[in-house]
Write a structure and sequence with these properties.
The longest helix is centred in the first third of the chain and has 22 residues. This protein has one domain: Lambda Exonuclease, Chain A (Alpha-Beta Complex), CATH 3.90.320.10. It is an alpha/beta fold and about 240 residues long. The N terminus is likely disordered. Strands 1, 2, 3, 4, 5 and 6 form a six-stranded mixed sheet that branches. It contains ten helices and six strands. Helices cover about 45% and strands about 25% of the residues. The chain is globular and about 50 Å long. It binds iron/sulfur cluster (SF4). Iron/sulfur cluster binds next to α4 and α10. The site of iron/sulfur cluster (SF4) has 14 residues, from α4 and α10.
């Protein structure tokens, strides 16, 4: 019976997109991903002075190519997107359902946060807005804020990933949170990493300046998984295929 109460009480707090009539779960997944991309792309185009945290911790050229060739970014559908989506929905529901047991007084999901950042770019001061959406923002019994960032991965090798830690620490700064939890769900294990050092404002300024100079890729492995690698002159050469 608890599950019934859980679904009735919490499901209305999740955003429902207008997918129209679908013939299968597969079509539902594809429609959801396309709608989410369109919504995200619309927001990015409407706010040219806003940088999203998810872009900030990745190769800046990917952002440039997503704006120039949205058709390429939109056309990519992989099963791992579905797994990631389901993991987020499930864990966000669990965090609400077991808030008390987890020591949370309050739980917010998909919480929008933002901050204005001043950067000096070639001696030209510029103000940009840094925006992000936090998977779970909880408040504990001491009124301290906790950011929970959910990640799925194919394996547990090399966890935690540097750019994920950076993303979490940026969210901690934007949410004024003293604690952050990076929660990985992989076929090998569930791994949880706790951080108490939010990114400083100076770190944010440096990251934004690097982004605005389009210095990429940030990591060589990014090109291997990049949708734009077949058109990008900055792609790191794949030595194995030479
Ligand atoms: S191929 Fe590499 S350098 Fe080019 S956009 Fe993709 S990640 Fe960036």
């Amino acid at each position: 019976m608890r599950f019934l109460r859980f679904s009735e009480k919490h499901v209305e707090q999740f955003e429902k997109l207008s997918v129209g009539r679908v013939s299968s779960f597969t079509e539902l997944f594809v429609r959801l991903q396309l709608l989410e991309f369109d919504e995200h792309y619309r927001k990015v185009r409407e706010h040219p002075l806003t940088i999203w945290v998810s872009y900030l911790v990745a190769c800046p050229l990917k952002w440039f190519y997503t704006m120039k060739y949205p058709e390429i970014a939109r056309a990519t559908f992989r099963g791992c997107f579905v797994l990631g989506k389901l993991a987020h929905l499930g864990l966000q529901q669990l965090a609400k359902l077991y808030a008390e047991e987890l020591g949370f007084r309050q739980v917010e999901i998909e919480k929008d946060v933002e901050k204005r950042i001043n950067v000096d770019l070639n001696d030209l001061p510029r103000i940009v807005r840094l925006s992000g959406r936090i998977d779970i923002l909880a408040t504990d019994e001491d009124d301290e804020k906790i950011v929970v960032e959910i990640k799925t991965a194919r394996s547990d090798a090399y966890l935690p990933h540097e750019h994920h830690v950076q993303q979490l620490r940026i969210y901690m700064n934007l949410a004024n949170a003293s604690k952050g939890v990076l929660l990985y769900i992989t076929p090998d294990r569930v791994a949880e990493y706790t951080y108490t050092n939010p990114a400083s404002d100076e770190e944010l300024q440096k990251l934004v300046a690097t982004f605005l100079r389009f210095e990429g890729p940030r990591y060589e492995w990014e090109c291997t998984y990049c949708q734009f690698s077949s058109i990008c002159p900055r792609k790191k050469t794949n030595q194995a295929k030479r």
